[in-house]
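Q: Convert this sequence to structure tokens.
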Amino acid sequence: MRAPKSFRLHIGIFGQRNTGKSSMLNALTHQEVSIVSDIAGTTTDPVEKPMELLPLGPVLFIDTAGIDDTGLLGEKRVARTRAVLDRTDLAVMVSNFEIWGTFEVELMSEFKKRDLPFVVVFNKTDLYPENLTITQSLDSVRVNYVFTQAISGKGIDELRQLLLQTAPADFINRPAILSDLVGPDEAAVLVVPIDKEAPRGRLILPQVQSIRDLLDHNSFCMVTRESGLRELLSRFNKPPKLVVTDSQAFLKVAADTPPEIPLTSFSILFARFQGDLPEMVRGAMAIEQLRPGDRVLIAEACTHHPIEEDIGTVKIPHWLNQYVGGELRFSHTRGHDFPENINDYKLIIHCGACMWNRREMLTRIMKAKQAGVPLTNYGLTIAYSLGIFQRALEPFPAALKIFNEKTNSSR
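A:
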């Protein structure tokens, strides 16, 4: 089975038109992934290619349109290319010694502003020999670079090695989803409702990833529907270390789980795994300031067609309207679309982003914070609006401390 995108290191390939970005991707993957042409601007939309880059593991290469494109259509291409920066874990800037200039310097500045690791590739070195002034300047600021001829494959092995060396440490040492909360030789119970939104014949990605995380760290894992939880817990001689539920079943599961057993949801686990749990806790507490008529943005990473009882378009708006005591004004986005101007919203509620890499989720959190708009996620929103927020945070002492401090300060 292929690794999901969320587990792949996203490597974005950027640069001016006709520098050989597509040839670079084809050489790295040993496949004809992108169309190669002498005509500048051949690549229009970002092209993705998943592969294994050993010993690093699963990666996703993203070939982008030339970020110097012009005209109305060119501006749209550039906008899509810049959006790729939001989900890039490691950037590759392709250039040559003939065109190197202000554009490349500004792009490197953008990488640094985003704290985004990057490497510089000087391509077509058979046509454009090394310029010592440029390379010495890069050496002085400790920028890694490599010389290649993508068409012939020269320098590609060196580029692969440089990518391995530059990969962010937090990808290589990825944090646990929940195994650190359970421990080896201890048990967790996962509550998986089977309803209209459950995919036929399989589990959803956060559930699968949670099971695998427990198995990888020598923990025991029991899976049940919400209707069987009470009976299952009665059979334990030693209580489980943690109960995890789908957020939509929070009330039923909270009622059937003894208070001494820690309880949370898959979505809250992913607020920590894919995002910034403390920041999202602060975001959830902004629900208290919502008033009827306020605008709320609900952002869904997946592009599935919503069903009759969809959590993002139906259930969360219903629960929040009940909590606020009136009608809020909801807007919805899906996929990588995200409003340029988010200042008009009082709150942003995001899904768990299980299909994304962590970089894109953190980028959205950063944008919201810069705009002064609180951002939280589905599970935290549901727990808060249903009155079980404190209990859902008990497995996370740092997040619970934030809740207690803000609660006490508002009294």
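The two ends are 52 Å apart (CA to CA).
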